[in-house]
Amino acid sequence: MTKDRLGALKAAQSEDEGDDDMHMDAANAQFMEEFFEQVEEIRGSVDLIASNVEEVKKKHSAILSNPVNDPKTKEELDELMASIKRTANKVRGKLKLIENAIEHDESSGSANADLRIRKTQHSTLSRRFVEVMTDYNKTQTDYRERCKGRIQRQLDIAGKQVGDEDLEEMIESGNPGVFTQGIITDTQQAKQTLADIEARHNDIMKLESSIRELHDMFMDMAMLVESQGEMVDRIEYNVEHAKEFVDRAVADTKKAVQYQSKARRVSLLSYILNGNLEPQALKSMRNSVRKE
């Protein structure tokens, strides 16, 4: 009676443990499903930033190719830049949450396949994000140089010769009045020239403000990606070599099957020539070879 009771208890315990395992597996599956939904959401946000950066480039070209100020295009440019900033901050926040969760699981001793998947996805998203933001930063600095060149040409037209270093100091002063000193504005053309100079100077001021606002976030992400670089490269190397190994194994298997089939045919021919096979055995081997 005691043995039966003990057996029942063990069976019940085993059943409970099985239920616990099932609950854990279901919870992990749900967690990973939600994780990949988050990954897709972040990827979509990064793609949106990349698309907006391309639009920013178009607006820059449109502004610089227009001989007069275009308030509508500038307003659209400001909206694009604000959108990029908002989306970039959201992406950075979400990546930071994933990073913190990974670090927490690592510190608790968890090292399963799901954790490796999360680390790889986080690293891939971070690198893509930094690539897009690097392109945006380059777009801004390129536009700054083009605006600076436009100011230089307009000053030349107005008869004011300014060296590159002096021009840089004038821009950094933040005072548009420094560009009008000593310039006669008694004609419409001269007034338009000065208006264009002030507009380009204002653009540069906005650019520098935008670059400063994103600088800390950009540097934080760049340092993270740099530290992840070796790990990602190693993963990519292993995946590539695993594929090569599988391809080679498949090819070797095909060759082995071909060699086996060829060997059987040679063996059959030898037996026939030597007259060692009975008719029934000959028929059986012939059918076997045909199937191959």
From TrEMBL:
<dbReference type="Pfam" id="PF05739">
    <property type="entry name" value="SNARE"/>
</dbReference>
<dbReference type="InterPro" id="IPR000727">
    <property type="entry name" value="T_SNARE_dom"/>
</dbReference>
<dbReference type="InterPro" id="IPR006011">
    <property type="entry name" value="Syntaxin_N"/>
</dbReference>
<dbReference type="GO" id="GO:0005886">
    <property type="term" value="C:plasma membrane"/>
</dbReference>
<dbReference type="GO" id="GO:0006906">
    <property type="term" value="P:vesicle fusion"/>
</dbReference>
<dbReference type="GO" id="GO:0006887">
    <property type="term" value="P:exocytosis"/>
</dbReference>
<dbReference type="GO" id="GO:0006836">
    <property type="term" value="P:neurotransmitter transport"/>
</dbReference>
<keyword id="KW-0472">Membrane</keyword>
<dbReference type="GO" id="GO:0006886">
    <property type="term" value="P:intracellular protein transport"/>
</dbReference>
<feature type="region of interest" description="Disordered">
    <location>
        <begin position="1"/>
        <end position="21"/>
    </location>
</feature>
<keyword id="KW-0532">Neurotransmitter transport</keyword>
<keyword id="KW-0175">Coiled coil</keyword>
<keyword id="KW-0812">Transmembrane</keyword>
<dbReference type="Pfam" id="PF00804">
    <property type="entry name" value="Syntaxin"/>
</dbReference>
<keyword id="KW-1133">Transmembrane helix</keyword>
<dbReference type="GO" id="GO:0005484">
    <property type="term" value="F:SNAP receptor activity"/>
</dbReference>
<dbReference type="GO" id="GO:0048278">
    <property type="term" value="P:vesicle docking"/>
</dbReference>
<comment type="similarity">
    <text>Belongs to the syntaxin family.</text>
</comment>
<dbReference type="GO" id="GO:0000149">
    <property type="term" value="F:SNARE binding"/>
</dbReference>
<feature type="domain" description="T-SNARE coiled-coil homology">
    <location>
        <begin position="194"/>
        <end position="256"/>
    </location>
</feature>
<protein>
    <recommendedName>
        <fullName>t-SNARE coiled-coil homology domain-containing protein</fullName>
    </recommendedName>
</protein>
<dbReference type="InterPro" id="IPR006012">
    <property type="entry name" value="Syntaxin/epimorphin_CS"/>
</dbReference>
<dbReference type="GO" id="GO:0012505">
    <property type="term" value="C:endomembrane system"/>
</dbReference>
<keyword id="KW-0813">Transport</keyword>
<dbReference type="InterPro" id="IPR045242">
    <property type="entry name" value="Syntaxin"/>
</dbReference>
<dbReference type="GO" id="GO:0031201">
    <property type="term" value="C:SNARE complex"/>
</dbReference>
<dbReference type="InterPro" id="IPR010989">
    <property type="entry name" value="SNARE"/>
</dbReference>
